[in-house]
Each structure stands twice: as structure tokens, then as C-alpha cells.
Amino acid sequence: MTTPIFAIANQKGGVGKTTTAINLSACLVERRQRVLLVDLDPQANATSGLGMPKAEGGSLYRLLLAGGDVRAQIRPTAYRRFDLIPSEVDLAGAEVDIVMARDYLHRLGGLLRPLAETGEYDQIFIDCPPSLGVLTMNAMTAADALLVPMQCEYYALEGVSTILRIVEQIRTTGANPRLQIDGVVLTMYDARTKLAQQVVVEIFQHFGDRVYESLIPRNVRLSEAPSYGKPVVVYDRHSTGAVAYRRLAREFLKRHPRPAADGEASPPGVSEPEGLDGVQPAEAAAPAPAPAGPSEPDAAAPAAEPPAGAAGGAE
Ligand SMILES: Nc1ncnc2c1ncn2[C@@H]1O[C@H](COP(=O)(O)OP(=O)(O)O)[C@@H](O)[C@H]1O
Ligand SMILES: [Mg+2]
């Protein structure tokens, strides 16, 4: 079965693309999916956020220009069934250099499609840079569908028409007729502000049921986890951020069911998968330190339930 490819794109920076790429991937891996994450941003935040080195020659740069077997750049992460194609600063050169190449909008697709056809992964995600340049366009021609993270703030919808127009162009010019907008992921939601609630209503009005009901709350653990090189479900398994991304993964699998490759896939109804394999399990399962000190702002957070309204009724 061919692996679906999802590009995580929004030309705005800081809207939660990389956070969603890392944590949705990790939560799907927890549900026994086999995931490949492609870091297509020269800033390499997904690479460092997974604790992987930014090594010279470690990005897709050379393959994007010269072609070849994409497997050469796939690296295993610290977690079983979770692989990464890392990035490093070299990739910035691709933005300029690929334009000289024949078929320059299809370089990434040319690398990923043969891999997708083998079906050895359940999902392939591409973490795009914050622009609509050649790299993002390559992601859009390679992908079956887009996931668009949007921050719940006043200007969220600004720029959306641009991305919609580009999707339409990519479809109608034949560059990628199958491209769909799979969904909008609402990030950094703060249930305490009226503004965030208004923005959510507006985005639902605009995108309807393409919006994922699982809202991602603003949560300091989500912003801390990358500096420890860990997905939030490993860094602080019971944080509201971890709960929210687990919920999103469950909703994602309901939309995109995958047959269990090994008979072990955790069905969407299971709310608490066991965690990521291959990490130090003691660390992953360690209880949060008891008294919350100044550097442990969420340590005493309740273990199970997100705050009311922080997740939109995916239960
Ligand atoms: N839900 C969230 N709560 C708190 N901080 C977040 C959340 N999502 C992302 N962040 C932080 O916001 C910043 C931008 O997020 P990031 O995922 O890197 O955005 P992008 O990839 O779109 O540029 C990062 O510092 C990240 O840790
Ligand atoms: Mg990013």
C-alpha cells in the first residue's frame, strides 16, 4: 500500500509547523505507525528537536540536485519505527540551485515517490520552511495532502488566501493534480482569551470540517522539549501539550486509517498508547518532580486531563 505523503506548510514562521511535525509524528509512532519525517527547512529545527545532529552533507541538498536513492539520507531516530531525513544549513543553497535543474518543481517528488510506493512507512511528513519558495513548492508537488498549522491569533487567516491560491495553481497547472488540503491544525490555543476563541470560530467558518477538532493549547512543555531533543510525549508525557498531540494523532488516524502492518497498530479508539519504544523507558516514564520550582513551571500539572476547552471534543 502506497504511503501517503503530507506536507506541513504555512509560509508564516512560528505557527507550529515543526512542533506539529515532530509531535504528530511521535504520537503516530506511539500508535505503532512507521513514520518518516523529512526536514526540509534549512534551519533544521525538526532535526535538532529530535536530538539529531546537523551534519555536513546530511540534508537532501545533494540528492535534490543530482537525484539518487533517498534511502542514503534516511537516519533512524532514538525511537523505533521513527526515521528522519535531517536538514542542515546547506539546504538553503537548494532554494537557489535547484531552479537551474530540469523539472525543478519535482525534485523532491522524484526522490520520495519511489519510497512511498514501497509502502515501508505508514506516513511520510515533510516539515516545510516558512516561505513559499522552491523547497515548499517541491513539498507541495511531492505531497498527497497539506496540513496547515495555524496559530490562534488575530492575523491567523492573513496569508491563507495565498497558500490556497498556490495549491489551486499546483493542481490546475498539472504540477500535482492530486494535492488536497487535508486539514488545518490550530496551535497555541489559549482558552483564557476571547480573541483565541473568536479566531477559532472564524477558522472553522472558513475551513469547515477540514479543521482538526483537537486544538493544540499553548503549553510551555511543548516549547521546552526541543531543547532537550525530545518529542513532548517523551519529555513530559502527561503535559497538556502531550495529551493534545496524542489526541490529534488519534483524530488523524481516524481520517487516514492504516492497516496494521504487524497486526499491532493501536486502534484509534485507544486513548493511551504505551509510549515510544527504543528510548530510555525509565526516563520516559519518570514521574514529574514533586514541588514545582521556578524552572519546572508545569511539573505539578495534573496528569490526565487537559484544561476544559483545550481540545475540541475529539473524545
Ligand atoms: N502549542 C505551543 N505552545 C507553546 N509553544 C509552542 C507551541 N507550538 C510551538 N511553540 C513554540 O513556538 C515557536 C515556533 O514554533 P515552531 O513549531 O518552530 O513553528 P514553525 O515551524 O511554524 O516556525 C517554537 O519556539 C516552539 O517551541
Ligand atoms: Mg519550523
Q: Could you explain the architecture of this structure?
A:
35% of the residues lie in helices and 11% in strands. With 315 residues, the protein is of the alpha/beta class. The protein has a single domain, classed as P-loop containing nucleotide triphosphate hydrolases (Rossmann fold), CATH 3.40.50. It has a 7-stranded mixed sheet with strand order 3-4-2-5-1-6-7, with helices on both faces. A hairpin with a 5-residue loop joins strand 3 (75-76) and strand 4. The protein binds adenosine-5'-diphosphate and magnesium ion.
Write the layout of secondary structure elements.
Blueprint: E1 5-8, H1 17-30, E2 35-39, H2 45-49, H3 61-66, E3 75-76, E4 82-85, H4 91-97, H5 107-118, E5 123-127, H6 134-142, E6 145-151, H7 160-172, E7 180-187, H8 194-207, H9 220-224, H10 232-235, H11 240-255, H12 281-285
Parallel strand pairs: 1-5, 1-6, 2-4, 2-5, 6-7
Antiparallel strand pairs: 3-4
Helix pairs in contact: 1-11, 5-6
Bound molecules: adenosine-5'-diphosphate (ADP) and magnesium ion (MG).
The site of magnesium ion has 4 residues, from helix 1.
Describe the structure in brief:
With about 325 residues, this protein is α/β, with parallel strands linked by helices. About 35% of the residues lie in helices and about 10% in strands.
